[in-house]
Amino acid sequence: MKRALVIRHARAETLAGNFTSVLRSENFELEPLNIFDDAPDYRSFQAPPLEDISLIIALGGPMSANHDYPALREEREYLGNAMAVGKPVMGICLSAQIMAQALGSKVEPTGGYQFGLSRLLITEKGAADPVFGKIEVPLAPTLHGDCFSTPKDAVKLAEGYMLCRDGTYRRIDMAFRYNESYAFQFEPQLTMEELKVWNKEFPGDYELMGDRFDAREESARNLREFAKFAPYHEAQMREMLLTFLRNVA
Predict the structure, then answer these.
(1) Which of 28, 56, 57, 110 stands the most exposed, by the fewest C-beta atoms within 10 Å?
(2) Percentage of residues in the chain with pLDDT exceeding 90?
(3) How do the domains of the chain map onto residue ranges?
(4) Distance CA 98, CA 43 (A)
């Protein structure tokens, strides 16, 4: 059986049922690496040797990629080594930012905060990409305040707009591919069931959007909108993951 390493940085952020079912249907054994077990210092990163796993799926978390935690430093090196030897990595949110740093790019605050559905501005290369091109409805759930710059030798797949706290808009990178690996500044694994958990666990994140937003109103809106979009989101992200597993991993 193939082994998929799943790096998690927060207890509430999981691979969720949609992605988990796809991986198991493709005969992957899931091996969790829970960075949050060592909170709040995040000193431990005990990953298996790269030759012992088939791919890595690394999820988001509450910290910034710029925080100087020992575990994040080791994760950055680990993901960098994985990409260097052609081991497929799918990085989501925080982990996408760590991937960008490992490839020599920067991560910085956007000036705003997103917690909800965001439009993806898919590039021409993104639309033609065999994996990313499976996203036919360019909308995805987001939860972030930082953003990455697409690394020099990577392919930009999508951009997006962030509404900053001062009322201006900023165009940011949302996805890139580096050889066999993909980095997403959105949440492809998210299901409605998990979003309900996030709304309970991360209510303060809505406050981070700024005083132009009412936190309770945004929380209710996020649940209401995603409830209608979730079936489309899960279907196209499931197809994207299947293609990644069969053609890349």
Answers:
(1) 110
(2) 98
(3) 2-247
(4) 16
